[in-house]
Amino acid sequence: MCGIVGYIGKSAAPPILINGLRRLEYRGYDSAGMAIVDHGKIVVAKAAGKVANLNDKAKAEWPASRFTESSYGIAHTRWATHGPPTEVNAHPHLDQSGDIAVVHNGIIENYRSLRAKLEAKGSKFVSETDTEVLAHLIGDRYRGDLFQAVCDALHQVEGTFGIAVISAKEPGKIITARRGSPIVLGIASGETIVASDASAILSHTQRVIYLDDNDIALVTADHVDIRDLNNVPVNREISELEFDAGSAEKGGHEHFMLKEIFEQPDCLRNAIRGRLDFSIGSSVLSGMGTSPRDLAEIHRVVLVGCGTSLHSGLIGEYAIEDLADTLAEVQQAAEFRYRNPIIGRNDLVLAISQSGETADTLAAVREAHQKGAFVMGLCNVVGSTIARETGRGIYLHAGPEISVASTKAFTSQVAVLLMIALKLGRARRFSREDGLAFALGIESIPSLVEKVLESNDKIAQLAEGYLHQQHAFFIGRGPMYPVALEGALKLKEISYIHAEGYHAAELKHGPIALLEKGTPVIALANDIPGKDKTLGNIEECKARGARILGLITEGDEEAAAVMDDIITIPACHPLIATIPTAVALQLFAYHIARLRGCEIDQPRNLAKSVTVE
């Protein structure tokens, strides 16, 4: 959600800023802009729409010298919050004097009262954004020291921010700060890159510094000075990125989403590798930092997440209760702190977030800490805020996920949750023999997914029969119910078809009233407990003219007989079957969206990392 890039160094800044913004396009945005200093004055270029529009506009309006002589600047992709996605609302924003430029991720919650005070002092605002208020506030506090002015301004701000600031009066420096919105600094020889996401840094360096909340940094080409908002020096270690620029390229695929779907066997191997111990029939998850006694004392597991991560948590709930004989529940992260949850010291709160920056999930982590719970993170991004603030948990090792619609992160989350359930189970009543059988099942997941991917062409053909529909229902039971939710989410995210996921038993409690002749019902009728009842629900749908696409276990002739179309899933444990089934639904959604001509990697109105509540 929004993207920040800042550059200061030995090269020309505008091409680097544009390239950095392109690497952040996957986060979701609707306008873009950049600011540099040229002959002692800040100059700004902005455009509604894509980064390509910004590049064209800057080249048309700026002299060529600006693209070759300016060695520092800031840039931004905006996902509209305050005011529509217009050129005037795009970042960067300037202060009243025009000497200070600001780019900002997050929301300034008290911007209205701040704006009123600034207007009383003579400030004239041109946009509807909260960010312009911040720019004017910094300008109002400026007394010849930009760093101190930003500190003073941020002390008056309520809300979240990741910012980068430059001033024509103080050349050769960028001021950056964060609270609730990520900022990472790329450290290279004679140049420094400021970004909201490491993807914008990859082509320059693997050495990065992650800012913590309420950090503020003075950045030059060859030095970084990090302090807190009280101007007290703090130490932040340099980390090494685990992936390179090549991992953020399409690799010959038409879309990032398709590339990431086909990367899943390798991603799952990375998530599983070294984490299964067949000698004891358990998993080895050292990041949890727990002993068998610690695990045995856990009374309840609370899984918190949003969107796709919520769906993986629902599968985790089934697995933990089934394998570990432990109470488990899933809570929507956005509700967690507002409903005053009952959490105790023997509860494990597992925060699930692909980015590790999801604002609602981070708030849930902090509330769980406040209530004395045992808190862990399940994240894909090393060094992310949730990973750092939980201090323990498990990384997915899925690599960068560029497409807004999550695929490989979801299946890696489920695989790790299955290993957590196995570990908890072996600390309780799950036998070594049962543990060994389940561990072998987990080990087989990559090959099961590979088998599903072999059906890509068939699934693409099936999709042709569904692409003109405007509504679809996904149904399932047991652990397939959250897979149905995830399948519906994928279809609506990227194809804009209205899709709903339901427990199969819920159809007759209302939704069946919406079925008409030809309405698609995607039925997850895998050979698991409750399959016979699901087949009965399918007959009810067929009696009302619905068209049934069944995802069934390979060789299940009984289930195949009641379907109009089928996708087969290899036979495996019901919990493990959730992953190959989800992959089949990802391909189904992808091919429908492709055939409909949708912008698959960057669906309208959506952002990859949701860093505002």
Characterization of the model:
This protein has 613 residues and is α/β, with parallel strands linked by helices. It folds into three domains: 3-247, Aminohydrolase, N-terminal nucleophile (Ntn) domain (Glutamine Phosphoribosylpyrophosphate, subunit 1, domain 1), CATH 3.60.20.10; 251-443, Rossmann fold; 453-597, 3-Layer(aba) Sandwich (Rossmann fold). The strands form five sheets. Strands 3-2-4-1-10-9-11-14 form an eight-stranded antiparallel β-sheet, covered by helices on one side. A six-stranded antiparallel β-sheet has the order 5-6-7-8-12-13, covered by helices on one side. A hairpin with a 2-residue loop joins strand 9 and strand 10 (191-195). The longest helix is centred in the last third of the chain and has 19 residues, at 408-426. The chain is globular and about 75 Å long.
